[in-house]
Amino acid sequence: MVAKKTKSVLDVKVPKKEKVEAWGMSTFSQSPVFRPETEEEIKDLFVWANQTGTKVALRGGGCSYGDASTNTDGIVLDLTHFNKVLDFNLKTGVMTVQSGARIKDLWETGIENGYWPPVVSGTMMPTLGGALSMNIHGKNNFKVGTIGEHIKEFTFLTAKGDILVCSPKKNTDLFYSAISGFGMLGCFLTVQIKMKPIYAGKMKIDPVYVRNFDELFAYFEEHYKSSDYLVGWIDAFASGKSMGRGQIHKATNLKEGEDPDFPGNCLLERQHLPSRLFYVIPKKWMWILMRPFSFNLGMRLINLAKCIASILVNHKAYYQGHAEYAFLLDYVPNWKFIYKPGAMIQYQVFIPKENAKQAFSEIFTICQERGIVNYLSVFKKHKPDPFLLTHAVDGFSMAMDFPVTKGNKEKLWSLCHEMDEIVLKHKGRFYFAKDSTLRKRVMESYFPKDNLKRFYSLKKKYDPKGILQTDLYKRVFLTEK
Q1: What is the pLDDT of residues 122-131, one digit of tens each?
Q2: 242 shares its domain with 132
Q3: Taking every annotated instance into account, which residue ranges of this chain make up the domain FAD-binding PCMH-type (predicted)?
Q4: Distance CA 442, CA 439 (A)
Q5: Does residue 419 share a domain with residue 285?
Q6: pLDDT score recorded for residue 9
Q7: Residues contacting residue 222 through CB under 8 Å, at least 6 positions apart
Q8: pTM confidence score
Q9: Inter-residue contact 247 to 231 (CB < 8 Å)
Q10: CATH for 394
């Protein structure tokens, strides 16, 4: 992208429209996509957008399940070419990167030097700018909080064109609102993140089978203080006394001196995800083998088989590399293709601990009653954080994958709206990185009014012409439904 300055307006050559797809592949926009590589290019595009009234959506790795980085009526700024690792202080563990650097870039740069990102998502492909915009959490949220809590400082280009340095002590209001602000106030430029020291190339994993929600919640409450990571897989087809059955993976980091192979087993070639399953089957074929089971009965059988396998390996601890444990969504390439042609959405909700068991029981029950059961449920424990538009609670979350088809889409959206009411009744929250169905009324019901008032005030201050808009922002904040 080259911007030429004329007397009054920058002359920007707008590229042809291309398909910009949500990660869940159920929604997309046809939009011109710019791929800037420098701060100057990003700033010029902001100037041009303010001059012309063009609406801009920022996009990182495109890992949000819904319409968080699509823009039907405007342009998209893809930041993945603005991705340099600028500095890494091996004494302090502070890494400075451009905002288009991916989580993959962070861990690959850090691990051979004994460092790992403090918070990662289930895929290594999000950019750090996108991760901060959504303030992502990981399987260790209950212990270390969200990724925003590990940021030392960032430079930020506001929508009106100012570049500000933000930290917990400098431009504090913007620091705590840009992180979690889903790209609506400006663009992260450079970011300083404090990496986590590690003393082993692998972690100890304990697989635990639980028979129902009672055992699931009891295990998390009993063991979270002695765990570095905890995550549960739940069989959403199970009902009655078996509702909530599944498998927990408890992970603990090895302490200094406990790994005789350290640091040799931190070499990249020993950390990358294997390309073959059982050393035989190319994993790129796995989604093709899984696709024949992508219907209710098939997934019911897969869930049952996984439960049986979980019983067989119950409490049989093993050791696993950091990337293998963290990035399950990357373990089988293109696994989401099993949901084509309509693809999928994820519905993730966060419920306070005193209400969570009842809320999830009601959600699973209504899904079974409506005949639309999610194919993959992931359970995590959380704690509150200080960011403006936070999704976090002192409680638990359930992330649920639903296939989208021509035949079920209307019923699925209706089901999601029914589940919204259950979540609101139990004082829960939602997560913009996963959302596809939220409505303005629901958003206004769960966010504290003071938080929304501050957000709208900051939006007016830093984006007075309203150039930063995405399909999600228009759907949830601008559309009265």
Answers
A1: 999 999 999 9
A2: no
A3: 26-198
A4: 5
A5: yes
A6: 72
A7: none
A8: 0.95
A9: no
A10: 3.30.70.2520
